[in-house]
Amino acid sequence: MSELVRIENLQVYYPIRSGFLNRITDNVKAVDDVSFVIEAGKTYGLVGESGSGKSTIGKSLVGLEDPTSGKILFEGKEVTTIKQKKALNYNKDVQMVFQDSQSSLNPRKTIGEIIAEPLKSFGVPGKIEAGYQGERSFDQVLIDQRVLELLEIVGLPARTITQYPFQFSGGQRQRIGVARALASNPRLIVADEPVSALDLSVQAQVLNFMKKIQRDYGISFLFISHDLGVVKYMTDNIAIMHNGRFVEVGTTADIFNNPQHIYTKRLLSAIPSLNVRERGEKRAIRKAVEQEFQNNKTKYYEKDGTRDKAYDLAPVAGSMTHFSAVKREEN
Ligand SMILES: Nc1ncnc2c1ncn2[C@@H]1O[C@H](COP(=O)(O)OP(=O)(O)OP(=O)(O)O)[C@@H](O)[C@H]1O
């Protein structure tokens, strides 16, 4: 297992100002002395209630926030501050996917322009066919080639290159966000609540798609979520956060099967609502599967233990592995 990112004793404090002179009188300890390692090709999950400090860790990692103290190492090199990150061109290797694809995609730019942004900043991999005599610059041709390739990777048709974000569904916009993140061939993607704004059946598609990208390109994820079902499905290791600190860390299986800390137990015991939620999710997914089969003029039935295309819609929550459906051609 090779180590990609090491975070040592990270602290991020935000000043609180008050009074007539707007002086700093205190600070919010958003992240208070956390350390962890993200392995290459693996997914590390941060779980915790709202305000526990998850996003602040993500922001420090991608360079949207300078830590108060502590160290961030990428492949052994220090990239703690924004200045150090710039010096090593680190942002090429680490990209972010946000929860709100509506506001993270510029509404005035086409999909082609949005996906091309990192290519313009970091350069385009690839080469032009020998003998090219077109009027467009080499760079522009390479950018277009790469954008089309990225659209194909995220499953969007080539014609969408000239469309605008408002012309897409939430799930499709999230795919565009992932395409943009993938453009610079990153080693790590910080995904901050990437599916919490999506319908359940669309959540499943986007999560499975992120897993596929990880398999195909060996990308690591820092996966931030308050949804334990999603985290159980997506991650290899988890840290449970509370008030800026890690209260428990471990493999996903250990944390779910054998939680030690009282706070983790409390979080997990809130999942009985999962049973209720799970039934709701099953219904939602069954509906999506039905719809898909109707569209394809096929019949279906459910059967445990059988795996096929429809099954890929199912496991939104890690606990839903028993639900499956089988696609049958009509006679
Ligand atoms: N720019 C900022 N200035 C001041 N305080 C901030 C700032 N950003 C975050 N905070 C505070 O830091 C703490 C941690 O916030 P953070 O967004 O990291 O939590 P979170 O666990 O990601 O929450 P959520 O799930 O709601 O996004 C909170 O108390 C928040 O109010």
TrEMBL record:
Gene3D superfamilies membership: P-loop containing nucleotide triphosphate hydrolases
Keyword Protein transport belongs to the record: yes
Keyword Transit peptide appears in the UniProt entry: no
Keywords attached to this entry: ATP-binding, Nucleotide-binding, Peptide transport, Protein transport, Transport
GO biological process: peptide transport; protein transport; transmembrane transport
Domain of life from the UniProt record: Bacteria
CDD domains named in the record: ABC_NikE_OppD_transporters (cd03257)
GO function term, MF aspect, one: ATP hydrolysis activity
PROSITE patterns registered for this protein in UniProt: ABC_TRANSPORTER_1 (PS00211), ABC_TRANSPORTER_2 (PS50893)
Protein family: Belongs to the ABC transporter superfamily.
Name by which UniProt lists this protein: Peptide/nickel transport system ATP-binding protein
